[in-house]
Amino acid sequence: MERINFKGKFIVKAELVLLTGLHIGGQDNTIEIGGIDNPVIKDERGIPYIPGTSLKGKLRTLMEYYHEKIDENKLVWVKKGEIKIHMCDDKDCPVCNLFGRNHGKHTFVNDENKMFENLMPTRLIVRDAKLIQESITDEMRNNLDTSYTEVKHENTIDRITSSANPRQNERVPAGARFKVEFVINVYNDEKVKYLKELITAMKLLEDDYLGGSGSRGYGKVKFENISISFRDKGFYLGISDEKELKKLNDTTEKIDWESMKIE
């Protein structure tokens, strides 16, 4: 087993801006007459948020395609016959090393069984993203259906009988902003290797979508006001400060990676 030396943590904070309405489904077990068919997920205060699992899962999927990990020799069953993702035992795999892998025995889509023995820990932590309530302006509220969301009415027409199947989707409106936070654990001599991977994933997401119905216009997002800092081991011992490395208006700004010196 490779020795693992903890070097510190990158803290990446940003605002995620909705350019089109976002639907990440929640559960409503008490649908009332006139209620919404497909509500968005909300926190304990009834305020929409973006679960870290949803954001991390989308970023991972995009990076699996980016690194050409989608074929039957590289996909394992998470749920036999239904759900498959990329996972492998390659100690240099950028996807598994950043987003994580489950250890133990796995079955690939090609029916090969393999015991994963690489014990490197997951590096990326994605926090739940809280809504910046001030981003929902009074002008926006005048056009919303609830305090924080809009209801989009959609319809599917049977091609033969022309019978209609109307439905309602709750969405967080365009213009809403969420606070996002990523933490990347740094080990050995990796330096900014996995930070680069995260920035790439954020760019890919901006040209894709988050949440449901993305191919029909939902979930276009953009990252703004990005800050990158580093906390070394001394920070956690109380003998050094957090090191601010970079502030970016958005992901289009060039990053001088050589200037990001960490010990």
Describe the structure.
With 263 residues, the chain is of the alpha+beta class. 17% of the residues lie in helices and 32% in strands. The protein is built from 5 helices and 13 strands. The strands form 4 sheets. Strands 1, 2, 7, 8, 11, 12 and 13 form a 7-stranded antiparallel beta sheet that branches.
Helices, by number, come to 5
Give the end-to-end Cα distance, rounded to a whole number of Å: 24 Å
- Classify the beta-strand content into a percent band: 25-35%
Task: Specify Rg, calculated over alpha carbons.
Answer: 21 Å
Spell the H/E element sequence: EEHEEHEEEEHEEEHEHE
Main structural class: alpha+beta
Q: What can be said about the biggest beta sheet?
A: 7 strands, antiparallel
The gross shape turns out to be globular
- Average pLDDT taken over every residue: 91
Q: Which residues sit in consecutive blocks of at least 5 with pLDDT less than 50?
A: none
Helix content: 10-25%
Number of strands: 13
Keywords: Antiviral defense, Endonuclease, Hydrolase, Nuclease, RNA-binding
Domain CRISPR type III-associated protein: 16-222
Protein name: CRISPR system Cms endoribonuclease Csm3
Organism: Thermosipho affectus
In short:
The chain is α+β, with helices and mostly antiparallel strands and 263 residues long.
What keywords describe this structure?
5 helices, 32% strand, hydrolase, endonuclease, nuclease, alpha+beta, 263 residues, RNA-binding, two-stranded antiparallel ribbon, seven-stranded antiparallel beta sheet, CRISPR system Cms endoribonuclease Csm3
